[in-house]
Amino acid sequence: MTDHxxxxxxxxxxxxxxxxxxxESNQAIYLYLDDAHKICNQKFADLLGYASTEAWAEVxxxxxxxxxxxxxxxxxxxxxxxxxxxxxxxxxxxxxxxxTGEMIDTTVIIVPISYQGHLFALHxxxxxx
Length: 129
What we know:
Elements: H1 3-17, H2 19-24, E1 28-34, E2 37-40, H3 42-47, H4 53-57, H5 63-67, H6 70-86, E3 90-97, E4 103-115, E5 118-127
Antiparallel strand pairs: 1-2, 1-5, 3-4, 4-5
């Protein structure tokens, strides 16, 4: 099994474990391992203007450059690194880039999750109205 296949298997397994949360939460949510291994709920896909969760997940270019406003990229990267290195959750204001180019201000809670010896970051996203 290649690393890519292993990571897909891990992502699917954790996704199955979190299915109820992804489907029933009123927040936009995404789970991130790396740029090629991520999933989101329909609320997050909708927030960024994607027709489906699959369409969003198919984007494999560098995550911060594609999805995050330039002024928020460092904050999101720092929060992700804190989750991975310190195993610490955090709350961070993030401005996202929608598929249309429009910007949307949010508050993001990032939580580290361990699954079968691999660290993921679970993100809960709330639009600032």
